[in-house]
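User: Okay, second chain of the day. Same drill as before: sequence in, structure tokens out.
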Amino acid sequence: MNRVSLRQDIRPLSEFRSHVAAFIQQVRGNRRPLVITHRGKSAAVLLDVAQYEELLDQLELLQDIQAGERQVESGLGVVHGKARDHVLGSLKK
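Assistant: Same drill. Structure tokens below.
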């Protein structure tokens, strides 16, 4: 995902309300999130749908990695050779 441009991608809610369609087009075009502020503080982020889905995929992968690390730490890991033999054995069936 492209980083937020501090000069272009932070807009107040009042401006967002007035130009919703233009801001949606902007987010789709430059593939950068738009930060919407309310009373001078960040309140929401507008993302392109494809980028949102990419973020969810990345989050899911990271959660899977963390789950695997916790399993290894708790002794549920399998040594490489045994895992390889198991996978190769199931492929031959």
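Residues 50-92 form one domain.

User: Thanks, on to the next one.
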